[in-house]
Amino acid sequence: GRGTFLAKLPKAAGNAGIEAAISALSQTTGPVESMQARQALEPELAALAAMHATPAQLRELRRLCQAMPVASSWSSYENLDSQFHETIAAASGNTLLQSMHRIVNGVRLVVVWRKLDTPDRGPETDYHSFAEHDAILAGIERRKPEEARQAMLRHLNSTLAAMISRH
């Protein structure tokens, strides 16, 4: 009856909480649910990134977009892809949404990527995500939130469609 009180969690406890959430959610979440969560969260992160990304974050996003098509393995590509999406979340400027993204992305890594049967070599040169990532980055660089939002939604829809067609 005295109101709401805030307490600071130690950084380690916060990270442990996120890791515990990822572990627990990975046991009960399927690949399609993971993608639906991304569809709900990541377009807004991209829109916010268009408004708040720093020049250093824009440079990092550009570097990642250039590195993904020349990745020598799927493992390398997956790492670059994760960094791209994590950098967008950080560029949103919203720490709560960024933490939510860390959980969703962590679950995605377990339930989607680890279940895909990918060849040892990297993605083909015409892999759909390359142009889609470029379109997301273009919206962010142009500081056009709706363009970035729609580009991210198209990318996630395309990824979900490709994922479903494999099964």
Distance between the termini: 53 Å
Q: Specify the biggest β-sheet.
A: none
Mean pLDDT, all residues: 88
Unreliable segments (pLDDT under 50, ≥5 consecutive)?
Answer: 4-13
Q: What is the H/E string?
A: HHHHHHH
Number of strands: 0
Query: How large is the share of residues in beta strands?
Result: under 5%
Count of helix runs? 7
Q: Choose one word for the global shape.
A: globular
Gyration radius, rounded? 17 Å
Tell me what the structure shows.
This protein has 167 residues and is mainly alpha-helical. The protein has seven helices and no strands. The termini are far apart. About 6% of the residues have low confidence. Helices cover 74% and strands 0% of the residues. α4 runs antiparallel to α5.
Give structural attributes:
mainly alpha, 167 residues
In short:
The protein is an all-alpha fold. About 75% of the residues lie in helices and about 0% in strands.
List the helices and strands and how they pair.
Elements: H1 11-28, H2 31-52, H3 55-67, H4 74-91, H5 95-111, H6 128-141, H7 145-166
Helix pairs in contact: 1-5, 2-4, 2-5, 2-6, 2-7, 3-4, 3-6, 4-5, 6-7
